[in-house]
Amino acid sequence: MNPLLQTLQPYPFEKLRALFKDIKPRAGFSPISFGIGEPKHPTPAIVRDAVVNALGGLSAYPATLGSEPLRQAIAAWVEKRYHLPAVDAATQVLPVSGSREALFALAQTVIDSRGAGPAGAAAERPIVLCPNPFYQIYEGAALLAGAVPYFANSDPARNFACDYSAVPEEIWARTQLLYVCTPGNPTGAVLTLDDWRELFALSDKHGFVIASDECYSEIYFDEASPPLGGLEAAHRLGRGFERLVMLSSLSKRSNVPGMRSGFVAGDASILKSFLLYRTYHGTALSTVYQTASAVAWQDETHVRENRAKYLQKFTAVTPMLAEVLDVRLPDAAFYLWANVRRTGLADTEFAARLYADYNVTVLPGSYLARTAHGTNPGEGFVRIALVAALEECVEGARRIVEFCRSLAQ
């Protein structure tokens, strides 16, 4: 067996199941889960209808490159959303089977571990730099590509954006791939133009690839101020897409996580190599979902309606939780990153007792981070995914408030 598999850590939800294994929630409370970031809003009718109308495509193998109508739809959306000049649908866009699959596979394409010595010689292996807290796929992708993950801790003073200035020069010199997540999971932090200017300068100096995970980009709270994306930042700073790709998905934007439909866009030379890898990897998006995806990318009405639902939930829930926890509206995304230290409980204990007493599930922040540079930046926090209906989110928040107040008695 591949020995690198033994370097992988349990996924956060495996840890959560282990934490809850011997707990039986108190009777009288229906289960409410804020644990998994799985959209619960209904799938738009236009997307469902498109799937049904495209079922004849099941008789054909899908092309790894994706259909031309889908690539054209994605290119047009990228141009409009990020105020870009013409994006080449043939060379700068590649449909993928969800951003998660692509985030993992990209590292296998980009990382060159030749000459790095034996697997145990970590000091000689290339580095994949990740945010901390982070989406665990980044770490797994790095390890299985033969690289070493290095974690840049989030900074609460910067609304939990990473402090890249603290990364040593010798680390940047070994970095081959930088994962950024903007808006961030779990914190919701969005990189600023100054952040991007710093990262582009480092990429120019050291030659590493930047993979910008933007799967939460369409969940925000001000229609006039959508989150800045990596390609948009590059254009605004007068540069091309060299060593830069962004990844997006329909899962959160259009409430279709079961379609596993997304795309990668940016540097044409990277996408050319990525397409070669994917041709062998065999992960082409179904022709049925390619057709439905093109329909979804061409419609914004359902996306605005989706955002309005999230805004309603955040507006109702955030002030309630702020009475008992240190929490505030994130820059974007559908998570609240709540500091629970004032309760006197560790994040894991908070989650376990909340589940036992009120049948509400939240995810301990320490499960979403690694101890790096002397600290685990997720400790003392819980991630609350406001993905359920408004009434359920409000009821869950009410229970959390009651639980926290009971601790103070």
UniProtKB/TrEMBL annotation:
GO BP, sorted A to Z: lysine biosynthetic process via diaminopimelate
Superkingdom: Bacteria
InterPro entries hit by this protein: Aminotransferase_I/II_large, DapC_beta/gammaproteobac, LL-DAP_aminotransferase, PyrdxlP-dep_Trfase, PyrdxlP-dep_Trfase_major, PyrdxlP-dep_Trfase_small
An example Gene Ontology molecular-function term: succinyldiaminopimelate transaminase activity
Domain called Aminotransferase class I/classII large: residue spans: 32-391
Keywords from the UniProt entry: Aminotransferase, Transferase
Pfam family, one: Aminotran_1_2
Cofactor annotation: pyridoxal 5'-phosphate
This protein's record includes keyword Transferase: yes
Protein name: Succinyldiaminopimelate aminotransferase
Biological source species: Caballeronia glathei
Species lineage: Bacteria, Pseudomonadati, Pseudomonadota, Betaproteobacteria, Burkholderiales
